[in-house]
Amino acid sequence: MNQRIYATVVKAISNQKRIDAASISQDSTLESLGISSLDAITIMYEIEDALNLEIPNEALENLNSVKDILDGISSLVQSKA
């Protein structure tokens, strides 16, 4: 896994929910982190800005865990390369 993507995702979640980044893992569910659909949108905007990419709205529909976000962002970055 790309460490830059992982760090960006964790930082965005940590900033939005004001939780310690060390408490966020790939296996964390969005529900367990208290992330609502509105939070998810805000987190995605921060990730888009940090990684200079555009995340399609459809990609937000099936996100249940941090790993889902990481996999989706990794795929977008690879397809952009």
Commentary on this structure:
This protein is an all-alpha fold and 81 residues long. The protein has one domain (3-80): Orthogonal Bundle (Non-ribosomal Peptide Synthetase Peptidyl Carrier Protein, Chain A). The chain is 56% helix and 0% strand. The chain has helices at residues 3-17, 37-51, 66-80. Helix 1 packs across helix 2. The longest helix has 15 residues, at 3-17. It is globular, with a radius of gyration of 11 Å. The mean pLDDT is 91.
Number of domains: 1
Principal-axes geometry comes out as globular
By CATH, the architecture is named Orthogonal Bundle
CATH topology assignment: Non-ribosomal Peptide Synthetase Peptidyl Carrier Protein, Chain A
Order of helices and strands: HHH
Q: What's the CATH C level?
A: Mainly Alpha
Low-pLDDT stretches are none
Helix fraction by DSSP (H/I, runs of at least 4): 55-70%
The CATH superfamily appears as ACP-like
Calculate Rg over CA atoms.
11 Å
Chain oligomer state = single chain
Number of strands: 0
